[in-house]
Design a protein that fits this description.
The complex is a heterodimer of chains A (229) and B (222). Chain A has 229 residues and is α/β, with parallel strands linked by helices. Chain A has two domains: 153 residues, P-loop containing nucleotide triphosphate hydrolases (Rossmann fold), CATH 3.40.50; 64 residues, no CATH class. Chain A contains eight helices and eleven strands. In chain A, the strands form two sheets. A six-stranded mixed beta sheet of chain A has the order 7-8-9-3-10-11, with helices on both faces. A five-stranded antiparallel beta sheet of chain A has the order 2-1-4-5-6, covered by helices on one side. The longest helix of chain A is centred in the middle third of the chain and has 14 residues. The two termini of chain A are 34 Å apart. Chain B is an all-alpha fold. Chain B has one domain: MetI-like (MetI-like fold), CATH 1.10.3720.10. Chain B is 78% helix and 0% strand. The C terminus of chain B is likely disordered. At the A-B interface, β7 of A face α6 and α7 of B.
């Protein structure tokens, strides 16, 4: 049975998607408006679908038939969007520490530094969000999302606004993580760099899954059309 | 200058402001975060004192807090004296009269906080109280200051509700605005002028403080 089964109606848009998450990284690929971000928000628990079932590491996070809906904070899911969403009144260190308040102070400080180092942001510790560049914000946002050691990391086009060098550097650090990742993108050039299975979404439906080459072969015309857009 | 009335007015404004902030912060948070069908009703009730003539509000409070109602008798039994025509009664009347001036800026401030920040806080395990304390309040600090300044100055300038609920008892319920009324009744225009200038200065100072806390136009877009 797939890990994710979602039926959701939002105005005229219908989301009807079933797919499984890979053991490491899965790419959710599709054109703008195909429902990728909505799926991520449903997985994170920020939107309640009309019907759905989500399991992660053997744990049921959502089952509308059984009226199960684990709250966002208890899903063990990290979520990073293009906007980073850092708390503007906090420093980079305080942002990363926000989700690991339950740790002892020393362990927390160690973990914060470890996470900032992991994403090459250790020099930003005491800087507040307005003092950070776009790329720096993304590094801190990723460190914050990974710090609580989530079971799943949802990444909604986190590198879209960054230059090539920054995005390549962050991507390689991301792919080295032991965490399962669901990576959303509408950029074929970007997913080409990610060695992962692809879930291809069109108009709210999954139309192909598997290795990128396989999806490319079966959807060549449509993907070339996407690339042209 | 009636120093007794000045001290009473400042005490009334300070106590009312403190009570209103304590009440209005959770109330505004509830308004911005609830899906309850009662939300518009609660918003309407908390905004009502802006539109209601102060004498109408004062009259109903006088009746409610007086000996004619079970509520009034119960409170009198608890406190050992009726709430009407007492400082405590003035605080209740002032708090109800000024509640929109606390709730409105706080609600606007909480609404202006980017919803994605609240979502991130939820995903990182923060509960409602932590979101309020660590995200909404720090990011709405100016709104909290605005609510405090508006409540304080509005309470200082109250007349109708204070007169209806508290009457005009020197040292107990006579505030500066009532002292001005008394001075005018006695044709002591010079005294009334001095007292009025004090009220004017308080109101102006509070507004200057409020506007000084806002970023300048250039800074806001920098």
């Amino acid at each position: 049975m797939p890990d994710v089964q979602i039926r959701h109606q939002q105005g005229h848009f219908t989301l009807d998607a079933d797919f499984s998450l890979g053991s490491r990284c899965t790419v959710l690929f599709g054109p703008s408006g195909s429902g990728k971000s909505t799926i991520l928000r449903i997985l994170a628990g920020l939107i309640a679908p009309q019907q759905g079932r989500v399991t992660l590491a053997g744990r049921t996070l959502l089952n509308t038939d059984q009226r199960i809906a684990v709250p966002p904070g208890r899903r063990s899911i990290g979520y990073v969007t293009q906007q980073a969403g850092l708390f503007p009144h906090l420093t980079a260190r305080e942002n990363v520490a926000f989700g690991i308040r339950h740790l002892e102070r020393e362990a927390r400080d160690r973990r914060v530094l470890e996470m900032l180092r992991l994403f090459g942001a250790e020099s930003l510790t005491h800087r507040r969000t307005p003092q950070l560049s776009g790329g720096e914000r993304q590094r801190v946002a990723l460190a914050r999302a990974v710090a609580p050691a989530p079971d799943l990391l949802l990444l909604d086009e986190p590198l879209a606004a960054l230059d090539d060098a920054s995005s390549q550097d962050i991507l390689s650090r991301l792919l080295a993580l032991p965490t399962r990742v669901l990576y959303v993108s509408h950029d074929l050039a970007e997913i080409w760099r990610i060695p992962a299975d692809v879930v291809f979404l069109e108009h709210g439906r999954v139309t192909a899954t598997g290795p990128l080459q396989h999806v490319l072969a079966s959807h060549r015309e449509r993907l070339l059309h996407q690339l042209a857009i | 200058m009636d120093l007794q009335a000045l001290w009473l007015t400042l005490r009334l404004a300070a106590v009312t402001t403190a009570i209103l902030l304590l009440l209005a912060i959770p109330l505004a948070f509830w308004i911005v975060s609830t899906r309850s069908r009662l939300r518009p009703v609660v918003e309407a009730v908390t905004t009502l004192p802006i539109l209601l003539p102060p004498t109408v509000l004062g009259f109903y409070l006088l009746v409610l807090l007086g000996q004619r109602t079970a509520f009034g008798r119960g409170i009198a039994h608890l406190l050992g004296h009726p709430l009407a025509f007492s400082f405590e009664g003035l605080v209740v009347g002032s708090a109800i009269y000024s509640i929109p001036f606390a709730v409105q800026p706080l609600t606007a401030g909480f609404h202006s906080v980017d919803a994605s920040l609240i979502e991130q806080a939820r995903l990182l395990g923060a509960g409602r109280f932590r979101i309020l304390r660590e995200i909404l309040l720090p990011l709405s600090a100016r709104s909290v200051l605005a609510a405090a300044a508006l409540c304080f100055t509005h309470t200082i300038g109250e007349f109708g509700v204070v007169l209806m609920v508290g009457g005009d008892i020197p040292g107990a319920t006579r505030t500066l605005s009532i002292a001005i009324y008394d001075q005018v009744q006695d044709f002591s225009y010079a005294q009334a002028n001095h007292t009025s200038l004090v009220l004017l200065a308080f109101s102006l100072a509070a507004l200057i403080l409020l506007y000084a806390s806002r970023p300048r136009n250039g800074a806001a877009h920098a």
